Amino acid sequence: MSEETDLNVPEPTQSIPGLGVSNNQGLLQWISSVDHKQIGIMYLWLSLLFLVIGGIEIMLVRTQLAVPNNDFLGPEAYNQLFTMHGTTMIFFVLTPAIFGFATYFVPLMIGANDMAFPRLNALSFWMTFFGGFLLYFSFLAGGAPDAGWFNYAPLNQYNYSSSPGINYYCSGLLLSGIGTVTASVNFIVTILKYRVNDMGLKQMPLFVWMILINSFLVLAAFPSLNAALVMVLLDRQLHAHFFNAVGGGSAILWQHLFWLFGHPEVYILILPIFGIFSEIFPVFSRKPIFGYGFVVGSGIAIALLAFGVWVHHMFATGLGNTVNNFFAASSLLIGVPTGVKIFNWLATMWGGSIKFSVAMLFGIAFLVEFTIGGLSGVSFAIVPIDWQLTDTYYVVAHLHYVFIGGSLFGLLSGLFYWFPKMSGRVLDERSGRWFFWLFVVGFNTTFLVQHALGAMGMARRVYTYPDLPGWGILNFISTAGGFLMAIAVGLLIYILVRAVRSGSKAENDPWDANTLEWTTTSPPNLKNFEQVIPVKSTRPFRDYKRPDDADWNRKEEYGK
Amino acid sequence: MVNTSLILHWHLDVSTLLLAAIFIAFFYSVTRFKRQRNNKLFAGVIILLLLLLSSPLHYLAMHAYFSAHMIIHVILLLICGPLLTLSLAGTDHPLLNRLSRFFNKNIWCAWITGVGIMWIWHIPALFDMAMANHGSFAPVFPLLQSGSLLLAGVVFSWPLLGPEEKLHTHALSGIVYLFTACVSCSLLGLLITFAPQGTYHYYHMGGSGYNPWNISHIEDSEAAGLIMWVPCCFVYLSGCLWLLYRWFISGSGVKLNNVR
Lengths: 560, 260
Ligand SMILES: [Cu+2]
Known about the structure:
The structure holds 2 protein chains of 2 kinds. By secondary structure, chain A is mainly alpha-helical. Chain A is built from 17 helices and no strands. Chain A has one domain (27-554): Cytochrome C Oxidase, Chain A (Up-down Bundle), CATH 1.20.210. Chain B has one domain. In chain B, helix 4 (56-63) crosses helix 5. The N and C termini of chain B lie far apart (63 Å). In chain B, 73% of the residues lie in helices and 0% in strands. At the A-B interface, helix 9 and helix 10 of A face helix 10 and helix 12 of B. Copper (II) ion (CU) is lined by residues 263, 266, 309, 312-313 of chain A. Chain A: This is Cytochrome c oxidase subunit 1. Chain A: It is a multi-pass membrane protein. Chain A: One of its GO terms (molecular function) is heme binding.
């Protein structure tokens, strides 16, 4: 597709050079690339870079919280650090990592040679890239944003935050938000128009399905955020009054606009993960997915429900019992489709011959951690519990179980699964296991105790705390767990760098997998496919490898 | 104590009977009562309609609560309307065929009708006018309101449930169709929920001064908006899931576990 160019962009003509820059065009070949595989890899590197930055920020925060009445950080620095940590992790770690995998693997999984709009693809990435760096430029420009990742009004107004940080928050997120929207348009067109001929929607890999649903979700949710960000900029720069109650605006309006985006955003960060696991569980259980239709259906249900529940983030704002009751009821419902999926995966593993690779270990850990996060989430749907626990560490624990135990575990699982395909190198499984256990133990040490801290009334976002019974020791445990996670991430980077430098060569199909991306070379050539094998079921590659046992001419049905 | 007498507030008025008669006449003219199943369904809907519009709920809607009013709107638009469309299933009549072809080509017309009529009746001025008129002997506005909501429900569901199955819209575009309608419905619900007090004058002035459950005006209008916002969305959502289910089981031998 990228051959029909009328501009002289230096594009690679031979093979994609793995993960390095050691080729005739060096870094330029990456910067100028419109190839979906290179852009996907750049997304992932960007995500890793910001993971380290966001991680350092939170380690400073956790150090401050290690003991009561600490003065390692002042309140101003503390506010900036936790705000930047949250914003970074959500918008510049999880989002780009998801989009990286999607950009790399959606075309490969549907038998296409590139995305529908390769240049738009590059634009999406660079918007995200510069959005992130613009956000961080605030540190040099006089102070980072300090009103939390959801940037509540009136804190986001000039009177309460006169440093330019929030302006950078708005413009940085606006840029990356545009990148996210354009990428989603690209995914939708690619998936609907560029599938290999005989792949119907009902044969589409579930990861691709989830990206398709997710892209619609992005298109519906991000305009609200982008508009709200512009409104804050107008308030701050041109003295508009959207969120300024004195001038006739409404501070609550910000919360509505933000959570109209924010609740779907939670799903934007988890639906693709559901897709990744719906690929990984079948491969490492040697069984087809249980209830393909239910996985798709619950994905669509989750996407639709996402827009009918956002007020549950606002139970404490005084909207009144009538409003709260309706949204309590609808919020209780959102657990249902997610629960359906959990049972889909359990049933997929049931009776399979499970191979405990690192990718699968993360899958199994995900089922446990994400269920904990889901249950604590459902508890917030009960209004009195929400009133008691909102803005405490219970919320912090809940959202980290969802974002780490859910989203990040899924991304790590995907990383261990797909790394051989992307790099042509094998990730060492033995040190991978070390990483897995360190990370899981560190994660639970950090966040499990925070449920208790929250229930004991410790407020989040306060830079220090008095020496109340139990608070000191629980916080110290949490900080220790945080350092364990930091060590684990260090180990992960070491594993990655070592694999890229001197890992042993990966086969084309190291996991005996099911989908089209494994039919090509590792790493794929610039042109992904010369020919694509026939697609007659959701496991085309397995059908091809085992024609006598192919899914499409099997008599009995699975899962019945 | 008031509530026991409320149960007894059944009022069948002329306009309701007239509305039912119009629908029965139309149904007869296109189907000639030929299909047993369709007749049963149609009779069921008409009975539901008559019950609904003469029930104590309707009495509450007319005299006391905006929220009761909204429940009636939702039942008319999202339950009675689509069921009426279903009762025409398989009917072969030139007019219906023309309609099916038209809505197949111009699906947006059906969408606009379904969504637009709901919006129009909730323009405060129009709403108050309709309510002010309800006491007269031949109440034109309530008739218009119920009738048009019912019709909107029929038209809106036509591309999904219309008589000619071949001219139904594709299940996946049907999902987009329902979802966008749900969003617009939520938006209207949201506006009503957070509307300033007194936007809907009739209820703000206390309807007919009847308030058996002592619900405050603000709670009542919030509940009205929320009924349109939240439960309505679940009706659309169920529709989406049903379409998806039909899509999965349709086609040559495709099973839910997706083996072709
Ligand atoms: Cu939420």
